[in-house]
Design brief:
Blueprint: E1 4-13, E2 17-27, E3 32-36, H1 43-51, E4 59-66, E5 69-70, H2 76-82, E6 87-90, H3 94-97, H4 104-115, H5 120-133, H6 139-142, H7 152-163, E7 170-174, H8 182-199, E8 202-206, H9 210-216, E9 219-224, E10 227-233, H10 234-239, H11 244-251, E11 301-304, E12 307-309, H12 314-320, H13 324-327, E13 348-363, E14 369-385, E15 389-393, H14 400-409, E16 415-420, E17 423-424, H15 430-437, E18 440-443, H16 447-450, H17 457-467, H18 473-483, H19 500-512, E19 518-522, H20 530-547, E20 550-554, H21 558-564, E21 567-572, E22 575-581, H22 582-587, H23 592-600, H24 606-611, H25 645-653, E23 659-660, E24 667-669, H26 683-688
Parallel strand pairs: 3-8, 3-9, 6-7, 7-8, 15-20, 15-21, 18-19, 19-20
Antiparallel strand pairs: 1-2, 1-4, 4-5, 9-10, 10-12, 11-12, 13-14, 13-16, 16-17, 21-22, 22-24, 23-24
């Protein structure tokens, strides 16, 4: 018998907006159901409806049965007895899900006492046991800490501990790893698997990361415009998708084990629930659209083997054996003339030489005194050649953003040198700094926050042109909009009238207004859906080749880096751990930290995810105010435990610097015992095996 049965679930908000339109699924004991789709597809609203957590103005119809008991229409006091005991939810943002004024231990103990008749001391003991189960170090001590004293990964693990406190039969996970670094994500996913083994619970995993679903789910439900469009076993859906939307999603994913080259974007944007197109909602974006698609919306119909598909051309897709690359056109990006010249013969556009940035650590409200130093960036060196993309990667807190700030400020660094287009930032006067700013521009992570909502897009793009006294501004704005794939008439609209992907294109247009030579990209696609992200990545590659740009690209998504970068520098705690050509670093990483990063990245391939081995890092990133002596990575290094006493002593006493690997042209690592190994099985190797 199923734990959860959802039948024809519909959620309508004021104004007749149907956010969820007839969703049906079942979850068996011990099963993981993955729910995927773009933002606005109704994934989270569906889960909140199941939990009874929607606002009062939402009208919910259909049926939600937990062990045969109907939850829709249940009184709140009865629903409270079910929530947290038989069914629990792990939220996307653990910081806002915890109460900031109570300790973590008290909040977990409260969840236990609400559903079990336990004394306070026994509930507190149970809270410590749960924190230990999910891998929190020193659980007795950490139970007395407040949510803000936990790192992001530890908060998410504490949220999982609270969710499993009463051995629930069903766990609903709403984007549980979205805001986490890839190494912490791997730890949290392992904790979820442990939690499931301990409780035997069924799991509903809601996420946009198809790699996570490939490794965890038994069945997958794909949603679009509030409705399921394809459903089936994970292997069938990934290897043999029958709905064009699913095919497009899978084809648009940048893969860390794939070759560099253009990605396959899904053109257009998801429709608004308030104004759905006639017929199939996906038809306006579908390359396989025929006239019949506009007549009526296709039902989710059985397709054999537990598959259900909502597409009138599903049988044709199966018969012809079509793939995402067959259905969605792969863009052709002309190569750059600059890269044909050997790197050594090209001009250097950006150079950092032993750059440092330390911040004083102060204490005291009135009489402040210095009690320490935050070593945000502690001596890094790299250079970028003309027409090249260097990616800066690493966990949150490793110093990537501080490095960008130091470069963009064009001020004398605290120590070391920053040279932009042959000009030392320490020797620039105000006029020289302003002139150089036109050649050095930035694209920010959040396009909505980077664009003034009170200004039309045309004025936003024109602002740097006017500030630098350029002429023919209107013509230049129209040209820039066309350059990034938008129409000149869009200049009259405001940022809030555009989708996320379009807003990012506007940010890129603004950055290109002064015809810069170097573009700094600060997580430019992390806030976008994978289908929209593919189009922006292709645009950046095309602009680089056409305009001869050089990029400094900061990202936490190493799969995106593989497609966009020529070289990569891996940062850890303010220092560079490994640097070199992307192919060298990805195929044969030499530093244990890089190896752990690459092995933690989920692959959108169920078979490879089930068979690959991960290098899990213990604990969280140390504080940059108190970095370990010697090698900064040694406290989390899997190799350190296997070394002899004499070898460990060297790691403790002597800090390694980046040294070129034997036989390598462009590959160096900061490790005393660097060893190149393969941690990702590429698609090609898999085929050979």
């Amino acid at each position: 018998m199923s734990i959860l049965e959802v039948r024809d679930l519909t959620v309508t908000f004021p104004g007749g907006i149907e956010a969820v339109r007839g969703v049906s699924y079942e979850v068996e004991r011990g099963e993981v159901l993955g729910i995927v789709g773009e933002s606005g597809s109704g994934k989270s609203v569906t889960s909140l409806a199941v939990m009874g957590l929607l606002p009062q103005n939402a009208v919910v119809s259909g049926s939600v049965r937990l062990h045969g008991q109907e939850l829709l229409g249940m009184k709140e006091d009865e629903l409270v007895k079910v929530r947290g005991k038989a069914i629990s939810m792990i939220f996307q943002d653990p910081l806002s899900a915890f109460t900031p004024v109570y300790t973590i231990g008290d909040q977990i103990a409260e969840a236990v006492r609400i559903h079990q008749k336990l004394a306070k001391d026994k509930a507190a003991t149970r809270a410590v046991e749960l924190l230990d189960l999910v891998g929190i170090p020193n659980p007795k001590l950490r139970a007395k800490a407040f949510p803000h004293e936990f790192s992001g990964g530890m908060r998410q693990r504490a949220m999982i501990a609270m969710a499993i406190a009463n051995d629930p039969d069903l766990l609903i996970c709403d984007e549980p790893t979205t805001a986490l670094d890839v190494t912490i994500q791997a730890q949290v996913l392992e904790v979820l698997k442990t939690a499931q083994q301990e409780t035997g619970a069924g799991i509903v995993m809601i996420t946009h990361d198809l790699g996570v679903i490939a490794g965890m789910a038994d069945r997958v439900l794909v949603m679009y415009a509030g409705r399921p469009v394809e459903q089936g076993p994970v292997d069938d859906l990934y290897y043999r998708p029958r709905m064009p939307y699913t095919m497009g999603l899978l084809a648009s994913i940048p893969r860390v084990d794939g070759e560099e080259g253009p990605l396959v974007p899904i053109e257009g944007n998801p429709p608004s629930p308030a104004s759905l197109p006639p017929g199939c909602p996906f038809a306006p974006r579908c390359p396989m659209k025929v006239d019949m698609c506009d007549d009526e919306e296709p039902e989710l119909t059985p397709f054999g083997g537990g598959r259900h598909v909502a597409c009138i051309r599903a049988h044709e897709i199966e018969h012809k054996g079509l793939t995402g690359a067959d259905v969605f056109p792969v863009p052709v990006i002309p190569p750059s003339d600059v890269v044909r010249v050997p790197r050594a013969e090209r001009a250097t556009v950006l150079e950092l030489d032993d750059m440092k940035k330390h911040y004083p650590l102060m204490k005291g409200a009135i009489f402040k005194r210095r009690v320490g130093t935050v070593f945000a960036v502690d001596g890094i060196s790299f250079d970028i050649a003309e027409g090249e993309t260097l990616a800066l990667v690493g966990e949150s807190g490793c110093g990537k953003t501080t490095t960008l700030q130091q470069i963009m400020q064009l001020q004398p660094p605290q120590d070391g040198r920053v040279v932009v287009l042959g000009k030392d930032s320490a020797k620039l006067d105000q006029a020289g700094r302003k002139a150089l700013r036109g050649d050095l521009q930035i694209v920010f992570q959040d396009p909505m926050a980077a664009l003034d909502p009170r200004m039309p897009v045309g004025d936003i793009i024109a602002e740097p042109l006017r500030a630098h006294g350029k002429k023919d501004v209107s013509a230049k704005v129209a040209e820039l909009l066309q350059l990034v794939g938008l129409a000149p008439e869009h200049a009259e609209r405001y940022p809030q009238q555009f989708s996320g992907g379009q807003r990012q294109r506007i940010g890129i247009a603004r950055a290109l207004a002064l015809e810069p030579k170097v573009l700094v990209l600060d997580e430019p696609v992390s806030a976008l859906d994978v289908s929209i992200q593919a189009g922006v990545i292709n645009l950046l590659e095309e602009l680089k080749n056409r305009l001869g740009l050089s990029y400094l690209f900061v990202a936490h998504d190493l799969a995106v880096v593989r497609h966009l970068a020529d070289r990569v520098a891996v940062m850890y705690l303010g220092r560079i751990a490994e640097i070199g050509e992307v192919k060298n670093v990805y195929d044969r990483p030499a530093h244990p930290y890089t190896q752990a990063l690459l092995s933690a990245i989920p692959l959108p391939d169920p078979e490879m995810e089930r068979t690959r081995k991960r290098i899990l890092l213990e604990g969280d990133l140390p504080s940059p105010a108190d970095p370990p002596s010697g090698c900064r990575f040694r406290t989390r290094c899997p190799k350190f435990a296997r070394l002899s006493e004499a070898e460990r002593r060297r790691c403790v006493d002597e800090e390694p610097s980046v040294a070129r690997l034997t036989g390598a042209v462009d590959h160096g690592a900061a490790c005393h015992y660097a060893e190149e190994i393969e941690v990702i099985t590429t698609s090609e190797n898999q085929e050979e095996e």
